[in-house]
Automatic annotation (TrEMBL):
Signal peptide: none
Protein name per Swiss-Prot or TrEMBL: Bcr/CflA family efflux transporter
NCBIfam families associated with the record: efflux_Bcr_CflA
Ranges annotated as spanning the membrane: 9-28, 48-66, 78-97, 103-125, 137-160, 166-186, 223-240, 246-269, 281-300, 306-327, 339-362, 368-387
Major location (coarse): membrane
Family: Belongs to the major facilitator superfamily. Bcr/CmlA family.
GO terms for biological process, alphabetical: xenobiotic detoxification by transmembrane export across the plasma membrane
GO molecular function: xenobiotic transmembrane transporter activity
Coiled coil: none
Biological source species: Gallaecimonas pentaromativorans
């Protein structure tokens, strides 16, 4: 693929990059149904197995911070393919573990490899596209990406019938297949090779990224907007199953409604980008998310019924379908150079801040309105960041 921006290759390129980004949700969600079986086989408790989620998320951020500058120095091709191989080998090794310690150690290696691969995706897009075209492309990747978290738990349940090891065998095969596809269809010709300024040190690269003051705004936007969604995901079971008393089957349907709304917002975003700049659409979508939270507060204060709460939460979470691609495009627009390092910073800040906010929310009173208020604080921070922008940098 000599020119990923070629319209004929546009969709295929997006599919492969989306498949790479899906390493996150697949490695996090596919094995969730296997927790009890894994705990039994490894002679431990389910909460110990759950610790592997935190280990994975934390190491994913570290892997991105390490690999971002390396991809600028040695090229996207070497770093991404190396990351995919590490991910595949670690996934296969997990099929033979005998203890919880081995699981945690190999999940660390697995996440490190995934971080190396994932961080190259925004950089590859920025290497080829900018402005509205980049925003459309990020939106297309997001559209395909929505499928992964939607099918991962169900697919994991299906594989569990062959033993929990089959889930990690699938991840190993997925990583190996993606390595072959990326090497054969994306990294051909000059795509992904190292560019000039390869001699610049890691600290100089990070210094150059943080020196771009307008880009810092988008780092905050990504972290706090993502936190709104993470707060919902963290407390969704409590909200729907405990507070509103729905069954597990109904909960799955209500949770899936957010994904449908994200698809709608994503498709709408792609249409709007034909007429408006990403920054303008970002202002509208963040404002829509804020209105959803206002509606949630009103519902919980005056008429706490599920049929009123549900659409407001769907709007709040679904708005992410337009928020995320426009933040990514607006942010990456500043980094024609050091794109890998910039992507690493954005990803690491997003996961670390959202992770801390999500974990800290466990200290809140066990009330739905407390969760909504926490979402409201994050949304207010987003509004302050986006509406005080002078918008001097046009995409």
């Amino acid at each position: 693929m000599n020119n990923p921006a070629d319209p004929k290759l546009h969709f295929g390129f997006a599919v492969l990059l989306a498949m790479t980004m899906a390493l996150g949700p697949f490695a996090l969600d596919t094995y969730l149904p296997a927790f009890p079986a894994m705990a039994k086989d490894l002679g431990t408790e389910v909460h110990q197995i759950a610790l592997s989620i935190s280990v994975y998320v934390f190491t994913l951020a570290i892997g991105q911070l390490v690999a971002g500058p390396l991809s600028d120095r040695f090229g996207r091709r070497a770093v991404m393919l190396c990351g995919l191989v590490i991910f595949a080998v670690a996934s296969f090794a997990i099929t033979g573990i005998k203890s919880i310690e081995m699981l945690l150690a190999l999940r660390t290696v697995q996440a490190f490899g995934a971080g190396w691969a994932i961080v190259c995706v925004p950089a590859l897009v920025r290497d080829s596209l900018s402005g509205r075209e980049a925003a459309k492309f990020f939106s297309l990747i997001g559209l395909i990406m929505v499928v992964a978290p939607a099918i991962a738990p169900s697919f994991g349940s299906l594989l569990l019938g062959f033993g929990w090891e089959s889930i990690f065998l699938f991840l190993a095969i997925y990583g190996a297949l993606l390595t072959v596809l990326m090497k054969g269809f994306v990294f051909t010709g000059e795509v992904g090779k190292a560019k000039p300024h390869a001699h610049v040190s890691v600290w100089q690269r990070y210094g150059a990224v943080f020196a771009v003051k307008p880009a810092l705004r988008y780092m905050g936007l990504q972290a706090f907007a993502f936190s709104v969604m993470m707060l919902f995901i963290t407390h969704s079971s409590f909200i729907y199953q405990q507070h509103f008393g729905v069954s597990p089957g109904v909960f799955a349907l209500l949770f899936g409604a957010n994904i449908v709304m994200m698809l709608v917002m994503n498709l709408s975003n792609r249409k709007l980008l034909n007429h408006f700049a990403p920054q303008q659409i970002l202002r509208w979508s963040l404002s829509l998310q804020a209105l959803g939270i206002v509606a949630l507060l009103l519902v919980m204060s005056f008429a706490p019924h599920l049929w009123l709460f549900l659409p407001a939460m769907i709007v709040t979470v679904g708005a992410m379908g337009a928020i995320t691609p426009n933040i990514q495009a607006s942010y990456m627009e500043y980094f024609a150079e050091h794109g890998g390092t910039a992507a690493a910073v954005l990803g690491a800040i997003q996961f670390s801040i959202a992770g801390l906010i999500s974990a800290g929310s466990a200290l809140l009173p066990e009330k739905v309105i407390a969760v909504v208020l926490a979402q409201g604080v994050c949304s207010l921070l987003c509004l302050a960041l986006i509406w005080t922008s002078k918008n001097s940098h046009k995409a």
